[in-house]
What we know:
Layout (H helix, E strand, L loop, with lengths): L2 H15 L31 E2 L13 H7 L13 H12 L1 E5 L4 E4 L10 E7 L8 E6 L4 E7 L4 H7 L11 E8 H8 L3 H22 L2 E3 L7 H7 L7 E11 L17
Antiparallel strand pairs: 1-6, 2-3, 4-5, 4-7, 5-6, 7-9, 8-9
Helix pairs in contact: 3-6, 5-6
The site of flavin mononucleotide has 9 residues, from loops.
Amino acid sequence: MDKQYIDQLIKKGRDSMKMPIEDPEYRSDQDLKLPQPILAKEAMRSESIDLPIDFENLSIENDFLRIINTRQSVRNYSEEELSLLELSYLLWCTQGVKEIRGQNYATIRTVPCGGARHQFETYMIIQNVESLEDGYYHYLPLIHKIECLSTHQDLKPFIIKALGDQAWAAKANINFFYSVVAYRCEWRYGIYAHRVALIDVGHISQNMYLAATSIHLGGCGVGYLNEAVLNEAFELDGEEEFMFYAFPVGTLDKNIKLTVKDPYDFIR
Ligand SMILES: Cc1cc2nc3c(=O)[nH]c(=O)nc-3n(C[C@H](O)[C@H](O)[C@H](O)COP(=O)(O)O)c2cc1C
């Protein structure tokens, strides 16, 4: 890559973070009264799996300051079995639907999202989770179920490839992957949608960090993906829907020490 091309890419990247020039004439598809896209992707398979929702049976840390304080990126996992209830809790805390507004106009979820468009889909590579076969899965947030897309043995080599050689992620019980269904937010925000979407995924990520911490699991956001490999594995077309962000979560390695720091230590 020559310097001029790199400069162009840098400019393109910066521009995608900025507000596009305001044009009073501009109308998004919602303004033009075009049909609204569906709130969440339909099931890709005919069968789905129920998830338990008796979260009161989980040992959930309820000291909020402690959760905030001990949250950290964890990349060492013990590879013990994870329960289906823990998986269900993580899914609900990050994309769970609390309400449907209007005539299927919007979902209100456990995370905020610009215009309540919720343009993300949750996929998972699951290993060693109670009662589930190892394989690729997809979350159905409107009914809080998951569907198995395909089962596989020895998923570790694929995980390492999919996360650009980040081998530590292969020990995670669940590698969560978030795709963007671009038109779901473009319908409302058009040329302004992409900046909003970048902000939105941060909320999912932070809820995942805090939810995992609250049930004594460890995880780490991963921005570096082999997008093409993941798109193919999860049957995404790479244009209308493409993989965007990953979040491995696993059982905590006993050597991990979650430190509680005095919030004022740093400024004293
Ligand atoms: C958007 C985002 C992308 C990240 N990508 C990676 C990654 O690809 N690999 C990795 O090891 N850590 C990744 N991290 C974790 C950061 O390195 C980590 O949050 C940072 O070092 C601060 O540490 P802490 O989370 O323990 O406070 C990512 C975190 C975020 C929020």
